[in-house]
Specification:
The chain is 92% helix and 0% strand. With 92 residues, it is mostly helical. Keywords: Membrane, Transmembrane, Transmembrane helix.
Amino acid sequence: MKEFLRRIKKIILLTMLVLSLWGIGLLLMNGIWWLQDNWVMPDRLRTVIMWILLLALIGLAAYALWNLFKILYVGFHWLFIEPFKKSYRKEN
């Protein structure tokens, strides 16, 4: 059980890191929109930076989704598979 909690804690911390990076990326995109609305940033530069940020945010979202699937898999494995494997070994 300690190993399970340690693994879940590590996965949750990684997910929180990814979500904080996601928030920073959204703030950057908002800042770029503000600069473009106030005629400070050229359209071409804004487009390039927005595409880079958008691709980075898509990558972070995919990584966060992968961590969510890992949490679900580890939880399912420890709740439903491990107890039955141990009880089966004890009976035989």
